[in-house]
Structures are given as C-alpha cells and as structure tokens.
Amino acid sequence: MDRVLNVVCEEARAALLVPVAAVLLYDERHNALNLAAGSGLPPELAERMKSPQRYLYEDYVLKGDPVVVISDLRAVPDRRVADLCLHYNLCTGAGAKMQREGQFIGVLAIVTTGGVRHFTAEELALLQGLADQAAQAITNARLFEETRRRLKFVQSLRNIDLAIAGSFDLRVTFSIVLDEITAQLGMDAAAILLFNPHTLMLKYAAWRGFRTGTIERVRLRLGEGYAGRAALERRTIHIPCLAESERDTVQAPLLADEGFVTYYAVPLIAKGQIQGVLEVCHRSPIDPDGEWLEFLETLAGQAAIAIDNVALLDKLQRSHLELVLAYDATIEGWAHALDLRDKETEGHSRRVTEMTLRLARALGMNEEELVHIRRGALLHDIGKMGIPDSILLKPGPLTPAEWEVMRRHPQYAYEMLSPIAYLRPALDIPYCHHEKWDGTGYPRELKGEQIPLAARIFAVVDVWDALSSDRPYRPAWPPEKVRAYLKDEAGKHFDPRVVEVFLKVLQEEVLEEEAHGN
Length: 518
Ligand code: C2E
Ligand code: SIN
Ligand code: SIN
Ligand code: FE
Ligand code: FE
What we know:
Blueprint: H1 2-16, E1 20-27, E2 32-39, H2 43-48, H3 54-61, E3 67-70, H4 79-88, E4 90-100, E5 103-113, H5 121-166, H6 170-184, E6 189-196, E7 201-208, E8 219-221, H7 225-233, E9 237-239, H8 252-257, E10 262-270, E11 273-282, H9 290-341, H10 348-362, H11 367-378, H12 389-392, H13 400-406, H14 409-417, H15 428-432, H16 453-468, H17 479-489, H18 496-515
Antiparallel strand pairs: 1-2, 1-5, 3-4, 4-5, 6-7, 6-11, 7-8, 9-10, 10-11
C-alpha cells in the first residue's frame, strides 16, 4: 500500500512539475484527512501532519468541488497553517478528490514553492486523472489487504473450531483461543475468566502476556471489577485509557502493575448463559476499527461455545457414570438375592465372578470384555427366578418333568436380559453357560467354539464351585475329586484349553495361600 502511494506522489510531481505532492486519506471515524504518503514534503511538516487533519476535510473537501486550488497557502484564514506554509515557503496548493464508486477515499495534493503559480485547466484535469488512477490503485490494494486479513481471521476461527472439536480439554482450547487473539488482534495480553454459577464468582482460567503471577489468586464477584461488570451487564466493556478511567479498586491496581493502557472485557455467553469473560489488554493505546471488534466478539463467541460444550460433556459423562454405578449396584443386589433363594453359601456369586474374571484374564481377554463378563457372571443364574421353589430347592434328584423346567433357566435369562441394551453384551454367560463342548448341553446344543468363550470359561468355574459346595441334593466334593472331574470332562463338557489354564490358576492360588501361611 505504501509503495502504491509513493508511486502516485512521484508521478504527480513529475507530471505537473511541482516540488511537493502528497496523498491524504480519508479517515471515516475522525472525519478528517490523514497524511498517508508525501514526496518532497519537509520532514518536520510531514511529522506535524501525522495527526488527523480535520480542518482540511471540513474547509476543502466538504465544499464540494472535485478539484480545489488555493492560490496562496500563506494567506489561508487558519493562522497556524498559514505560518507553517510561510515557514516552509509553500505557495500554491491544488488538491483533487480521489473517489471510487461514490466513496470518498482521499485527496491527491500538489504544492508549489518559491512563488504563486497558476495551474491551467489541462494541468488540473491531469491532476484529476492521476487522482482517479490513484483511487483505483488504493481500492485494489485495500481489497487485497482486506482479503488477506479476512483469510487470516477465517483461518483463526477454523483453528479454534478444530480445537473445540478435537479436544474436550478446555485448557487446550483456551490456549489456542488466546494465541489467536494475541496474534491476530495484535494485543499484548489476553485472559479468560470462568464463571462459577454456584458461587457467582469469576476466576482466571487461562492467560497470555501477563508479567505478574498475581491474577491466579483473583476472584471477582458478578458485577465486581471491569470483568465482573461485563458479565453482569452482558456487554463489552472498553477502557481506552486505564489511567484516565474511574478507578476500579478491584482490578485497576493489577492492570496498572502490568502497565496496560487499553482494556476490553467481552462477556462469554452461550445459550443465554454467562460462561465467563474474555479480557484483552494492550500496553499502548490502540485505535481498532469495526472489523477488529467484530473479530474479537466472534472469538469470544467461540470460546463460550467451547466452554459450554465441555460443561455439557462433563455432565453427560457424570450422569452416564452415575447410571452405570446404579446399574452395577442393582446387578450385585440381584445376584445376592439369587444366592439367597438358591440357598447358596454366602458369597457364591462373588466367588464364581472373581474366579471367572481371573481365568478370563489368564486367557488374554481385554478389560472391556471383562466388564461384560463380570456382569454376566453375576447374573448367570438370573433365569432361575423363573424356576419354582419346589424344583429349585428339591433335596433329591429331579424327575424328567422337573428337569425339563430346570433346563429352561438359560432361556429365561435371555428373555429377561436381552431387552436391556446395557446388559446385552453380558448375555453370553447367562444364556450359554450350560452348553457343552461336545454339543450335548442346553438350550441350543452349541458345539466347540460356537459357544462364546465367556460361557466356556464360566462353565468350568460354575461346575467347580457347584461341586465344591453343599447342594440341597448332595454334599460338597473334596477338592481332588473336583479337579479330577474337571480333567475328565475336558473335551467332553469343557473346552480343554480352558480347563488346562483353570487348573494352573487353581494351582497358583494354592501356592499363594501357602506363601501367606494359610
Ligand atoms: P448347580 O447346582 O449350581 O450346578 C451347576 C452345574 O454343576 C450343573 O449343571 C452340573 O453341570 C454341575 N453339577 C452340580 N452338581 C453336580 C453333581 O452332583 N454331579 C455332577 N456330575 N455335576 C454336578 P446342570 O446339571 O445343568 O444343573 C443345573 C442346575 O439344576 C443346578 O445348578 C441345580 O440348581 C439344578 N440341579 C441339577 N441337578 C439337580 C438335582 O439332582 N436335584 C436338584 N434339586 N436340583 C438339581
Ligand atoms: C446360583 O448359582 O444359583 C447363584 C448365582 C451364582 O451361582 O453365582
Ligand atoms: C446354573 O448355573 O444354572 C447351575 C450352576 C449354578 O447355579 O451356579
Ligand atoms: Fe445355571
Ligand atoms: Fe451357579
């Protein structure tokens, strides 16, 4: 842009044979003209013209003529200007408006030295032509810059979006938001305060560019300090000059220690709820435009969404965990009730469950599978709830009719558990624990590896525990007899590999107990 403007000045000087040419750009916010480039201007004068030139705009541009000539600058009504021109020996000035699609862009000005000069109509037309060309070049350069800036903003927003989608860790998201803000908005420091809806307090959660570490300890009540006010009033608070603002006793000392001059606090609001406050600070005055502010507020919106997302996920995970815990407590309660009804020895369910998990681990099943195996083992005989006491608790052998009823218990388990989505992956054991390796089991007469591994594992543990315990229909067997039975049934009732590993696990247990002096 500067290069474009310098070329325009050089062209004007050469074409019109004048010693001085300058481009003054229109500054909408101050309704003034700003010196943007000059050629042949005395440096001291250029320096003095850096501030917005309001009189030039009001006295010459607003008057309306596309080209204005001031034949003797040393005699203009504004004494200060006249004196300066006298000092630098500036005589005749001519300015042509630069306009583009009805928009006033600025003025291309030329100045003579050493004497008043009369510009001909052709010369003024040439000046106007140069101004038109300059207007086009400036518009193009601005469009290019704006496009580049917008692209960078879009890229920033995209980075933040990715951070929000890719991470449920607020610290990561905040770190990216703060990086983008300080980099894209050119600010010295930025911070995010989180609002706690229970205590109604704001607390710094992340920050960049602060020199002192004291902000970590800051707590702001809603309405307290600038940030507290932004949250309470739900609007951006802008302090252009902290030193000149009414002293805020809570935040001002800290901000003064940091040497900040300019300060913004933007409320973070998602779904109508205050999530926190975004603060941005700079150690020198800044004069941002509307687009800058819009970008700041867009980033604040993104940060608010990120906070809301994480809070939502947190809540979801917590309630899911509560549900799982509630379910598992229910399952353990059921298993215990089953033990009682079956007149099992205390802790039977827990015992077979623990042994099943141990054996499953020894056979290389992963932790996720074990979760379901645990539930399945606890509930393996839930189907016995459908068996009448007269059969379940019968002291002697069962009649063929009674057996027929007893053998329905795995099917009952399937009917009870399969509608519960949460327990469906745990069904293998309750449904298949009476299948046999040789295909002579029930209810489906599955064979070999058709039987789910969990059920093959459980069957060994179940029979081991049943034979080791007193039953209404027979007393407990001694351990050697149980082991011999399991070995004998390997390849008939049981998966031989499972029996082999189970006997090793049993052996380890015996050795462990001996080592502990039992
Ligand atoms: P349970 O008593 O928990 O027995 C589980 C499994 O251990 C039995 O499945 C069987 O494979 C094995 N088992 C248990 N006791 C013995 C036994 O004395 N000898 C042999 N060889 N194996 C035994 P099964 O046979 O499918 O029986 C399922 C359930 O039916 C048993 O669970 C029990 O509740 C009931 N049941 C089985 N036989 C009788 C019986 O003779 N009288 C009564 N009242 N109930 C029986
Ligand atoms: C039963 O066997 O009837 C009680 C449940 C269990 O064995 O774990
Ligand atoms: C069965 O599982 O149905 C019999 C074995 C047991 O009660 O543990
Ligand atoms: Fe059973
Ligand atoms: Fe059992």
